[in-house]
User: What shape does this take?
Amino acid sequence: MAISLKGDQEMSSVPTTKSKALRINLNSDIYGTFAEIGAGQETARNFFRSGAASGTIAKAMSAYDKDFSDAIYGVETDNRYVTESRLKRMLGHEIGLMEDRLSRQKHPNKLFFSYANTVTTIDFARKFKGHGWVGIRFQLDPLEDYNEIVLHLRFKETDARLQQETLGILGVNLIYGAFYLNDNPKELIKSFYDNLGSHQIEIDMINFSGPRFMYVDNRLMSLQLLKNGMTNAVMFGPDGNNLLPAQVLYKKNILALRGSFRPVTKVNMNMFEQSKKMFLQEDKVEESKTQIIFEITLSNLSAEGKINERDFLDRAELLCSLGQNVMITNFQQYFKLVEYLSEFTKERMALAMGVHNMVQIFDEKYYRDLSGGILEAFGKLFYRDLKVYMYPYHDQENDDYITSENLKVHPRMKELYKFFKNNGKVLDIQDFDKKILDIFSRTVLKMIKNGEDGWEQMLPEGISEIIKQKKLFGYSRTKK
Assistant: This one.
């Protein structure tokens, strides 16, 4: 028997945590376990305190001791406990116990679930605020397979007790959303912040799976986190599943390429290949410890007034097909991107960009919100050994190539530009392909939409076939 909102009493737009927990407790079909490690049994406590918990809670437990935890859930290969793999072990183990110990003949209509979290709260030195993994594995019909929602959070509060309470509220929101908002994943994500604020937690990764979420694109769910202000950056891999930036970038050398990739062109890939070659030649940069990111800003996605989700997925589809990790950020200014990446690594970093982006970096208007203006921004951008690889621009009018040697910035910025240029912070990508420099994404996009011929040759191998097959960017065979 599937759960539906139909026939249920209408509730306020943002129900209280207690009313959410009570509504679940009073639903005789929802039954499951709570396994919470690292911040008390805060989620289960909300269900106990709301009343009628015996109808919902089959078991609530915390295995704080590592030996107890390993005996129950097994040993992780990396010997860590606050990880996604640990969370999934917990969910799988607890659901297995539910199925083994409760007879389906006795409980034919029960919708089993397992809620789990593994977190670390703020340390005594208050240097590390803490983070955690939270998830639920649940049924919406006794005859269906299980669905799953897994998310990662970062605590922002500086008090362990407050963090525990925040985690408990989030847990109730997740369980409630899983059963009552599953038909609208976008609203489900929004509901995570019911009775919470962005000053309390950041949710920087989420993945949906299972029969009820078969048609959910997790990349689009990542975008919702950004749109709702729940985080400033999200990442997904070539398989389309969302990744945790902190995990992917931890102690890595990072090369970031920013662009619209609408669509990805031969120029984008040439910049990628040549900047990667230069980066791997840098001192102390090993390929095995290097992460390359294709970054798109939220402002770029909303350049036409509002975010077009279909357009976003079209771009993501092509970058994923090329085997790339993609990051969507809310960092319009480069120094903010570098600050963010620096949270996860102290290793070498580099940015690859075209002439237009380089000119923007030296434009004072982008730093008016900083008390120290452009000098403060550059202090943050180049405070470590950051390199910028600049891809040339072909000036068709004069048939000239714009490089770092003849780049023109605002007269007031000339000396600042010379300083960074002469100190080896700005390097030209030398080995570029002159034959492709006049290719622009906007031109290709216009040709695709207008049904013109010839755009296929401007894209990397295999990309035009994907665009045609999946009808991306408004492609239609019927256009002439």
Observations:
- The chain is about 35% helix and 20% strand.
- The radius of gyration is 25 Å.
